[in-house]
Write a structure and sequence with these properties.
Blueprint: H1 34-50, E1 110-114, H2 118-130, E2 136-140, E3 145-147, H3 153-156, E4 166-168, H4 170-174, E5 178-180, E6 184-188, E7 193-196, E8 215-217, E9 220-223, E10 228-229, H5 237-242, H6 254-264, E11 271-276, H7 286-301, E12 306-311, H8 320-330, E13 335-338, E14 343-347, E15 352-355, E16 361-362, E17 365-368, E18 372-373, H9 376-380, E19 393-394, E20 399-400, E21 406-408, H10 423-441, E22 456-463, E23 469-479, E24 484-487, E25 493-494, H11 500-518
Parallel strand pairs: 1-2, 1-9, 2-5, 9-21, 11-12, 11-17, 12-13
Antiparallel strand pairs: 3-4, 6-7, 7-8, 10-18, 14-15, 15-16, 19-20, 22-23, 23-24, 23-25
Helix pairs in contact: 2-10, 2-11, 7-8
């Protein structure tokens, strides 16, 4: 399963009750000068905003005329990997001596990243690495742990504990990324500032009174908040979800453990229903991997049970031939797949699902995957055009079409044809964006400049039972004529058949990409 964002802070070890656990482990050591540096830029940013500069450090500029500040070359990173030391002042002439004080070094550009999932964590780390620590990078993520949605289907069937897909953000701190565990409430794209809930930022004692500690200026903003589950698109689903009568488990965490517990409590002969939402949604093959793994678990532990997969789409949308072959060979009589079932209502008390054309279905366990869209924050900021569901971007650096200085990557964007909403794709988009922003924002003497549009590579593994997996891969190149990324003909590929070798490859993929994002 390949969704791209981290969500619930649920990393329990023994018991795994489904309650969100606290980050009780030892905190990462603070880097020398780390906290004072944060207080300094909060103070400076607050004063600049109060002075009406819009946070770009250039007095006298109106919000409508903002441009990014020119960034002077910064010194090399400090040996500890933290922020580079401030440039030392050289001697200037005294009064009447004819000398002049050296100009103050302009601060490095500040890039704020919202969302610590596959896209956001990768972007934050690579912005620091590719800029040789010259960019100031701040990551805003409410959760204390990164929880991987890829591999979380194996938690449902108790093949993995939750801790196996839970990772700390300490590696990003070591790279010099400033982490703030907070929530963004609003974005002012004209003034280039964010308003946070304020849980993660202390108020600087000398900050201007007109600006609270929860207001953050930025030079560039990278939005990678993942997806929002549109529960309200299905009548009765918000209530059924709140009461635990229908579960989605499409954001790894509490619901993952709740669905596992409900599955373990299913009586032999019980009925399970998985509904698949209309495309586009996070992780195209994810529902079918989940169906395969649950069917494999039922085959062993509840052989008289029945699993229905009710798909809003006209057919399996990813790896269809491979999944169907496994279902027919291994799960015949246990798993039944039905396309063209668009869910319109959930009656949680009766355990009943109603569709626009087909007859209602009842089950003991409802795993309802609702329609998905970009989070409310992006829609309220005016970044989603068309049907208002996904953020519109343009150019190879995923620039927001409706706002300057803003970029959107990961599951939130309106993907071009053939581009999946997957963890690997989010990781690839983040690296391409980081390279483009570093080339633009960091003055590198003798540097290579803009690398130009870079290709995007995607790989997605899916388990079909406890020991075998399949994959699909694709390469996407920038099409200058159509101004979008498109799949390259002849690149990528699909598994010939499930195998244990592919399952081993899937594990190596997971470990490698987690290290790439967070190490």
């Amino acid at each position: 399963m390949t969704p791209s964002s981290a969500h619930q802070d649920t990393a329990g070890e023994a018991g795994e009750t489904g309650e969100g656990t606290r980050d009780t482990g030892p905190a990462a050591p603070a880097e020398p000068g780390h906290r004072p540096a944060r207080r300094r830029w909060l103070r400076d940013g607050a004063c600049l905003l109060a002075a009406g500069t819009g946070g770009d450090g250039l007095p006298g500029r109106t919000a409508a005329a903002q441009t990014l500040p020119v960034v002077a070359p910064a010194p090399a990173a400090a040996p500890d990997g933290g922020n580079p030391p401030a440039a030392a002042s050289s001697g200037g002439g005294g009064g009447g001596g004819g000398g002049s004080s050296p100009p103050a070094r302009l601060r490095p550009a500040r890039v704020v990243v919202v969302g610590g999932g596959y896209a956001g964590a990768t972007a934050a780390r690579y912005l620091r690495l590719l800029s040789n620590h010259r960019l100031e990078v701040l990551l805003i993520e409410p959760q204390r742990h990164f929880l991987s949605c890829p591999m979380s289907n194996l938690v449902l069937t108790a093949q993995l504990p939750m801790r196996a897909i839970s990772h700390r953000y300490d590696g990003l701190r070591r790279a010099g990324v400033e982490l703030v565990h907070d929530r963004v409430l609003a974005i002012d794209t004209a003034r280039r500032q964010l308003r946070l809930a304020g849980d993660g930022l202390p108020r600087p004692a000398d900050a201007a009174s007109a600006v609270g500690a929860s207001t953050l200026p930025y030079d560039r903003l990278v939005l990678a908040p993942g997806i929002e589950l549109d529960l309200g698109a299905v009548a009765g689903l918000p209530e059924a979800t709140a009461r635990g009568q229908a579960l989605h488990a499409w954001k790894a965490g509490e619901q993952t453990l709740a669905l596992r517990q409900r599955l373990a409590a299913l009586p032999d002969g019980g009925r399970v229903v998985i509904t698949v939402p209309p495309v586009p949604y996070r992780c195209p093959p994810g529902p079918y991997e989940r169906a395969s793994l649950i069917a494999d678990w039922l085959r062993v532990h509840r052989p008289r049970a029945k699993l229905l997969v009710l798909d809003a789409n006209p057919d399996v949308v990813s790896k269809g031939a491979l999944f169907k072959a496994v279902w027919a060979e291994r799960y015949g009589g246990l798993l039944e797949y039905r396309p063209d079932h668009r869910l319109v209502e959930v009656d949680g008390a009766r355990g009943e699902l109603r569709f626009d054309l087909q007859e209602p279905e009842r089950a003991d366990l409802l795993n309802v995957l609702p329609p998905m869209r970009a989070p409310t924050l992006l829609r309220e900021t005016g970044l989603c055009g068309g049907d208002g569901r996904w953020a519109d971007t343009e150019g190879p650096a995923f620039a927001a079409r409706q706002a300057s200085g803003v970029h959107v990557i990961g599951d939130s964007l309106r993907a071009p044809p053939g581009m999946p909403k997957s963890g690997h794709m989010a990781n690839a988009q983040a690296k391409v964006l980081a390279a483009a922003l570093v080339a633009e924002l960091v003055a590198e003497p003798g540097g290579q400049g803009d690398p130009g549009p870079l290709p995007l590579v995607n790989t997605c593994y899916s388990f079909v039972d406890a020991t075998r997996a399949v994959h699909v891969a694709s390469v996407h190149g920038w099409d200058a004529a159509q101004r979008q990324y498109l799949p390259l003909a002849g690149a990528g590929g699909l598994s010939a058949a499930p195998s244990a070798v592919e399952a081993d490859h899937a594990w190596h993929w997971a470990r490698t990409i987690w290290a790439d994002m967070l190490a």
